[in-house]
Amino acid sequence: MKNDRWVYYKDVKPQDMGGGVTRRVLAYSDDLMVVENTFEKGAVGSLHHHPHTQITYVASGAFEFEIDGVKNVVRKGDTMLKTNDVIHGCVCLEAGVLLDIFNPYRKDFVED
Q: Which CATH class is domain 23-106?
């Protein structure tokens, strides 16, 4: 799937991440990756950090995000920048979808 020019949503099997979260790894290369995360209301994205720069776009729903100790509620259309190794996580307030863009790609999300 790495470096595939066309990635069709219908062909990407969702991964049950547990706790009401489903992940779909979409298009990616060595430098960039797009991942869709679907959250049920009350699902938690535990506080964590990683050596990747990440931008998150809220496609739907509402989430309380914590980034580097600061909490804010975000909704459809909002974006967040998480620089390398910053601690971040979220709680889903209204069922929704987050689109994550990573640089470089998350090797731990795929088997090449």
A: mainly beta
